[in-house]
Amino acid sequence: MSKFYVELKRVVDDSYDIEIGHNLFNTLIRELKGNLGQGISRYAIITDSVVKELYGDKLYELMLKEGFNVDLLSFPAGETSKVRRTKEILEDTMLEKGHKRDSCIIALGGGVVTDLAGFVAGTFGRGIPFINYSTTILGAADASVGGKTAVDTELATNLIGLIYQPKKVYIDLATWGTLPIQQVSNGLAETIKHACMADIEFFEFLEEYIAQLLTNEGVTERQKEICIHIAEMNCKIKYEVVKLDEREANLRQILNLGHTVGRAIETLSDYTLLHGEAVAIGMASQVRIGQKLGYISEKEADRVIALYEKTGLSTHIPAHITTQELVSKLYTDKKVRKGKIRFVFQEGIGKIKQYDDGNYSIALEETFISEAIEEMRNK
C-alpha cells in the first residue's frame, strides 16, 4: 500500500475595492480597460428582467461601443429565480456563446442577481472572475459585499452555494432613485440589522433620517448625503466582520442576526415575502427572545421594532404560518449544530452577545423557542 501527502499550502489575497458613487458605468468601463480587465477577453453581464430594462441594455450598448466582447444574459426578476435551474440555464448559455476561463461576469442588480451570478462565476470553468455592480439598497447593505453566493431550494434558502469574492464592487447610488418604496424598505431591513449589531450611533441616525427615504417621491438627490452615509456604514460594518472571518468559522455568524427566524419565514411564505420583509420579522423575534433571556431591555426591543415599523415593514409572524411549521423550518438554518437550533442575539443596541466559550451563537431548546414565539403572537 502506498501513501502520499499532498501539500497545498496557499497564501491568497482576495482583497478588492468597493466604490460608492453616482452613475458609475463610465468608471467601470475605464477600469475594465485598465488593470481591472487584465487577462480578460470576454464579458457576460448577468442581470434580471427589471434591471435589464433599466440599466442592463445601456451597459451592454456602452461596452459594445467601447469595443468589448460582451454578452447580456437575463432571467425573470424575483427570489423565485434564485434556484439551481436558473443557474444551469445561465451556465449553458455562456457555454453556447463560447465563454471560457478568460471570461468575466458582471453581476448587475440587487441581491438575487449578485448571489446567483457570483455562484455561476465561482463554478464556471472551476472559477472565473466577477464584478458586482449593485443597483439596490439591499445589495449595497448585504449581498454584494462579502463573497456570499448561493441559490435557494424548496427546503431552505442560501444553503447551496460558496464563498467567492468579487474583483470589485460598485455601489451606484443613482440607481436607488428608480427603486419602488417596497424595495427601499426591503433594503433598509439589513441596514437596521447592521446598526443593531454594531453601531448605536448609526441606529440613532436611522431613527432620525430613515423616513426621508420613504416618501412618495422615493430616493431623490435631496437625500444624497443620507444615502452615502448608509452605503458607507453598511460596507464598513460588514467589512470589519468579513476581514476577520471570511469563511464563517464563528464571528461571521453575527451577520445572521435576525435570520434564524427570518429565513424560515421567507421560505415558508414561498418567497411571497421579500428578504427584507422576512428579516424584519426575524429581527423582531430575535429581540423579543433576547429580552426573555436578559440580553436586551424591553425599551430597547421596542425601539428596534418601532424602527422597522417606521420603515413600513411588518414585524408580525404571518397568521397562516403555524408555530409548529416555523419551529420545524428552523432546523434548516445553516447555524444548526448537532441537531440544535442556534440563535445570534444583539446585546442592547449596537453590540452582539458573545458567550463565555467565545461563540457568537447559542443553542436553544425547541420548547423554549415555541413558547417564546407563542408569547409574541399573543402579545
Automatic annotation (TrEMBL):
Protein name (record): 3-dehydroquinate synthase
Organism: Cellulosilyticum lentocellum (strain ATCC 49066 / DSM 5427 / NCIMB 11756 / RHM5) (Clostridium lentocellum)
Pfam families: DHQ_synthase, DHQS_C
GO cellular component, one term: cytoplasm
Lineage of the organism: Bacteria, Bacillati, Bacillota, Clostridia, Lachnospirales
EC number: 4.2.3.4
Cofactor: Zn(2+); Co(2+); NAD(+)
GO BP: aromatic amino acid family biosynthetic process; chorismate biosynthetic process
Entry keyword Zinc: yes
